[in-house]
Design goal:
This protein is of the alpha+beta class. The N and C termini lie far apart (45 Å). It is built from 6 helices and 13 strands. It has one domain. The protein is globular. The strands form 4 sheets. A 6-stranded antiparallel beta sheet has the order 4-5-9-8-7-6. Strands 1-2-3 form a 3-stranded antiparallel beta sheet, with no helix packed on it. Strands 10-11 form a two-stranded antiparallel ribbon.
């Protein structure tokens, strides 16, 4: 029997100013209904086009294209607006306030990851299809923007670390299915279409996830690992583990089995800070992470993005390592409870 994926109605309760809402008030992608008047964008007066309705079932043979979603192709601006509005709602705020509270590194981390998800390398349908929807068109939740932290990473330079310089997204059933079975999106590996492949990172998927894919950008001759976008997720819903996910910064309490960790590896040790400066490596010209993104991503990343209808604001700070603020981060484990830092407290998670 075919099934219909429609998020049920839920009301998001927000704590009074100065208090911290616990994660039980923060819905997952599968729990939101953006058809309600309560989802009106506080900054623009309009509803973000945030959720697709999906009908069908991939079945036991992973026939992803049996799932049909009323998504459509959206501009990079519209997709970003939708996701920023989603994270702002989770933080009991609005898009303008959230964006103004982010430091430059947090902004660029969000922009670099959404750029490659909205590029031809992340097309969901194979060559020859008239459907040009990307994975970003099917992203339905932004759970966290994890900025950098000084001293993190293999080189202790603030450019790396498993919990930093990344975002966490939730996807609808079609994107989730194609991500888990990426070869169907480009069986002959034709240039200019989906470029997802199994990651050759020696560390494998980050715990608690069980699958790791990548978009190969460049690799030095003697480098055992390829640089470029890296994304971690569960190979199947039954792999999901709440206790494991709760250990990761920004996604404590998330119950969505489609949640995906996304970043970009810019060097041999897979540092991923877009404000970091990296040497030339293989086909990479080197430079700042955002400049390397420009070289390979295949679309204009629009580093000057501002949410639609919001006034232009400067970042909270321009520190390469984030300046100690984490306003984009979602809930984190605090003892036995998940707590969600409110905007303006600098972020209590790290």
């Amino acid at each position: 029997m075919a099934w219909r994926w429609i998020p049920p109605l839920i009301t998001i309760a927000c704590a009074p100013a100065g208090n911290t809402p616990d994660s039980g008030l923060l819905p997952d992608a599968s729990e939101l209904d953006t058809s309600s008047d309560a989802w009106q964008g506080a900054d623009s007066g309009t509803k973000p086009d945030a959720r697709s309705t999906c009908v069908g079932d991939a079945g036991t043979n992973d026939s992803c294209y049996a799932i049909e979603c009323t998504t459509g192709v959206h501009s990079l601006q519209a997709n970003r607006d939708r996701l920023i509005a989603d994270l702002a709602q989770r933080k009991c705020s609005d898009s303008c306030t959230l964006w103004a509270a982010l430091n430059e590194a947090e902004r660029y981390i969000f922009l670099m990851d959404t750029a490659y998800l909205g590029a031809p390398a992340s097309l969901l349908y194979p060559p020859g299809s008239s459907n040009l929807e990307t994975a970003l068109d099917h992203a339905v939740a932004l759970y966290s923007i994890n900025g950098p932290k000084a001293g993190e990473g293999i080189l202790l330079n603030g450019l790396g670390g498993n919990d930093y310089n990344r975002i966490y997204l939730g996807f609808d059933p079609l994107a989730q299915c194609v991500m888990r079975n990426y070869t169907i999106a480009n069986p002959s590996q034709q240039a200019g279409y989906n470029a997802w492949t199994k990651s050759d990172d020696l560390g494998g998927p980050h715990a608690p996830f069980t699958q790791r894919d990548m978009i190969p950008w460049f690799k030095a001759t003697l480098d055992p690992q390829t640089q470029g976008p890296q994304f971690h997720f569960w190979h199947q819903d039954s792999d999901y583990t709440q206790s494991g996910l709760d250990q990761r910064l920004g996604v404590c309490g998330v119950t969505d089995p489609s949640v995906t960790e996304l970043t970009i590896a810019f060097d041999t040790v897979h540092d991923s800070n877009p404000l970091g400066n990296y040497p030339s490596d293989g086909a990479s010209n080197g430079g700042y992470g955002w400049q390397i993104t420009n070289q390979f991503v295949g679309v204009d990343p629009n580093w000057t993005y501002m949410p639609t209808s919001c006034p232009t604001t400067t970042p909270l700070n321009t520190s390469t390592t984030g300046g100690g603020t984490f306003n984009g981060m979602g809930p984190c484990l605090n003892g036995s409870a998940c707590t969600n830092p409110t905007l303006g407290d600098g972020g209590a998670c790290p």
